Amino acid sequence: MLVRFVREHWKPLVFVAWAVGVLVAYLGQFSDSLDSIRDVLSRIFGGA
Amino acid sequence: MAADIVVALAFNAGLMAFSYGVGRPIVRIFNPSGPAGVGRDPAGIRRLDRGLFALALGFGAIMFVYLFLGLGDALNKPAAWAIYGAAGAITLVQYRGIAPEARAAFERVRKQRPPAWALALAAVVAGHAFLNLVGAMAPPSMADPLRHHLASPAYYADVGGFPFVPVIFWNIPGVLHVGYTVELLVASEIAPAVTHFTFSLLTAGAVFVLGRRFAGWKVGLIAAAIFYSLPMTTELASAPMVEMGAVFFAVLAVYALLTGGKDADMRWILLAGLLGGLAGATKPWALLAGPAGLAVILVVQGSGVLQRPRRTAISLVAFSFAFGLVLGPWLIRNYIAAGDPLWPLGYQVFRGDMWTDWHFEKFSSWETGPGKSLVDFVLGPWNLTNEIGSFTQDRGPLSGSLLTPILLIFIPAAWLFGAARNKATGGLLAALGAFAALAYVVWFAGYQQPRYIQVVHPLLAVMAGVGVVAAAGTRRRWLALAAAGLLGLSLVGTLGVSVAFNSGFFPVVFGAQSRDEFLEAKVSNISSVMWVNENLPTDTKVLVMGLAGWYYFDRDWLVGDSAYQGHLAYHDMASPDGLVMELSDVGVTHVLVQGAVDAEPTLLGWAARVGGPSYGERALEELLTDLELPPVTPNDFEARPFVLLAGLQAEGRLGLVHRGEETVVTSRTFGGSESVEFLVFELLVE
Fold first, then answer.
1. Residues B533 and B472 in one domain
2. Integer Cα distance of B437 and B170 in angstroms
3. From the list B396, B408, B417, which residue is nearest A22 (CB)?
4. Which of B230, B408, B411 to mutate to test the interface with A (most CBs of A within 10 A)?
């Protein structure tokens, strides 16, 4: 059943895997920038 | 400042309207045709599309008139107003034609009943546009405009023409620079940024019509929203840069090639060449539109290249001819003045005057990005999306170079979900892919500054738009929702980036912060510039050793940095006497040494900063003895003027008149800055 599901839906599955992979890598690049983000939010909202 | 803003908005409204009026008959001369249909004019091109072509050509034509006036040293206030008025008169003469067009366009928009998601996308673009407009209305504060995009037009406006000035980036083709010169003459310092902001909206419009014509209105709208929400669009659209003009012309050139390239319709190909030339004449990196345009012709003609090679050859020659025709005035002027049509970028080939191997070595050694291996080449799009910090030196990922993940996620989806099987959409993807690939190869081989490849962003947005619509059109509701969710999240995120970036401009634009306070917070080394303006006599001429805030000098001044100019040949000066003679010849009375974070606030401190630690460790006598030989490395070349100046100071011919504090701004968005010291000297010659 799993094989059939994969065969019928391989394109969306490939797309979702690709999208999740890109998103994780994209968000990961900000891990060292949290303080900077906090600084900007603080400047805009006055202490968020 | 409110008056400056009003004048800037009014002048630009007129300039754009008059550009359309001047361009309308030019488009008729070309009479480009296409398949007739609903909402299209008798020639078969939609009104909005034709209007954008008219505006582009009209703007280019007006700028050419100003350019030739300037090349003849006749660009002054009366001349600038006369041309502006003539363009207005040409527009008014066509009132009977333009008014019904405008009414019909308004009626068509009024009768539209777009779905909610389309309205939401339009609202996102409108939100970005409002924020960017506020940013554009603030006093100029971005480093590049203060160093060249505004600094050189300010000089040109002052002298009333476009003389050859041997300062890097001041003599590179600039359609928008011509416009900025006129605006500084007759409008206000806010006007150039408003012009650039307007071009950002026009580019979004060009992206929309490109996507709509070849892949449907949904693709066009999504692509426009993706492009306009990119952080780099935000950073550029709110400043008096030139990139948005270049990409506007480039996108329309691609539209023209896709429309008439396959059948070798000379009208479209010539039109594309002119627009590509305007792109290249606006920003050096948009010169890529030349070879990339040739690649697009080959792609759209496909198998016809082999079947009818003569037709292909004529197409390539016609495009190149029109492209070169537009660039001609700038190239010829630079060649006559310095022996290099692209001075100084063509030095390797032309060995132009006022540039040296040391200049060339310095700038060709600039490097950024993770590397230049085959793996880096293949991973380039991934790295540009997910490792952007490796391209931004020490600024990290939170910069204007940040891309959104939408491009990388959805561009492959266009092929995965079969959108490329549609003939028109497949042709669009192939052509845009060819343009982007060629631009990427050239960019990768050179200095990998993310902004230098910005010319492909609008085209990538169209490809991603095709991918979004293809993913949403698979009849899997969950996939459509996922695609919409990803797009929505990305747009909300980038709107947040825009708020963070532009919020710093609100206080000064709406009167809660003074202009001086704003400049102090946003512009590096502005204190030294203001000190010179406020304390030195009006007949002063200042040699500026430093690269910041040039636009804001009120006093006569001269670029002093050895690497950025070619008028002072420090490398030929064997002693301080040579420097004194040269400075006296050009009328320099004072020297400003701007503060730098990594330099001791002394002349030899600066020499050590640019030349290496040995300059701080060796005795001045020894350094002066070394001047008898030419510089060995680019570092020695850069340190030489500071050693010469230090020699003058030791001999009592250069006196320190002021030592002051200023700041170097490390981030306009995050508000970081570091305190440094600047020095002002007086040249003491009899």
1. no
2. 29
3. B408
4. B408
Count of structural domains, chain B: 2
A6 to chain B, any CB pair closer than 8 A? The answer is no
CA B48 – CA B454 distance, rounded (Å): 24
Lowest mean pLDDT of B10-14, B359-363, B412-416, name the range. B359-363
Give the chain B residue whose CA is nearest to the CA of A14. Answer: B416
Q: Report the predicted TM-score, pTM, of the whole model to 2 decimal places.
A: 0.94
- Omega within 30 of 0 (cis) for the link into B344: yes
B503 and A26 within 8 Å at the Cβ level: the answer is: no
Rg for chain B, CA atoms, rounded? 26
What does B320-357 look like in DSSP terms, one character per residue? HHHHHHHHHHHHHHHHHHHS-TTTTTTHHHH--TT--H
- Report CA dihedral (B609, B614, B620, B624) to the nearest 10 degrees: -90
Name the residue type at position B340. D
With cut-offs at 50, 70 and 90, classify the pLDDT of residue B460.
very high
Nearest CA in chain A to B472: A12
Residue B143: predicted pLDDT: 93
pLDDT digits (tens, 9 = 90+) for B73-123: 999 999 999 999 999 999 999 999 999 988 988 898 889 899 999 999 999
The residue written with tokens 């359609």 in the block is B175
Listed in sequence order, the residues at least 6 apart from B39 whose beta carbon sits closer than 8 Å to its beta carbon are B46, B47, B108
Domain assignment present for B511: no
| Of B23, B299, B76, B30, the residue nearest B185 (C-alpha) | B76
Same domain, B497 and B624: no
Does B533 lie in the same domain as B489? no
Whether B439 is in a domain gets the answer: yes
In chain B, what is the straight-line distance between the N-terminal and C-terminal CA atoms, in Å?
44
- Based on the fold, state whether residues B564 and B658 are members of the same structural domain: yes
Q: Are A19 and B388 inside 8 Å of each other by CB?
A: no
Number of H helices, E strands in chain A: 2, 0
Chosen for mutation from A16, A29, A45 (greatest number of chain B CBs closer than 10 Å) is A29
Give dist(CA B573, CA B565) in Å, integer: 15
Per-residue pLDDT tens for B479-537?
999 999 999 999 999 999 999 999 999 999 999 999 999 999 999 999 999 999 999 99
Buried b (16+ CB within 10 A) or exposed e, A13-39: eebeebbeebbebbeebeeeeeebeeb
Instruction: Give chain A positions within 8 Å (CB) of B416.
Output: 11, 14-15
Residue in A15, A23, A32 nearest the CB of B471: A15
The answer to whether A43 contacts chain B (CB < 8 Å) is: yes
pLDDT, tens only, B292-342: 999 999 999 988 888 999 999 999 999 999 999 999 999 999 999 999 999
Ordered alpha helix ranges (H), B114-230: 116-136, 143-144, 151-159, 175-186, 191-215, 217-229
CA nearest neighbour of B194 among B400, B69, B401, B14: B14
Q: How far apart are CA B626 and CA B640, in angstroms?
A: 10
Substitution target in B409, B478, B489, B666 with the highest count of A β-carbons within 10 Å is B409
Q: Is A29 on the interface with B (CB under 8 A)?
A: yes
pLDDT tops 90 at residue B263: no
Contacts of B471 in chain A (CB under 8 A): 15
Length of chain A: 48
DSSP assignment of B376-426 equals HHHTHHHHHHH-GGGGSTTS-SSSTTPPPHHHHHHHHHHHHTTGGGSHHHH
B415 and B532 part of one domain: no
Q: Measured between beta carbons, which residues in chain B are less than 8 angstroms from residue A36?
A: 396, 398, 670
Which residue range is the domain that position B555 belongs to?
Answer: 518-683
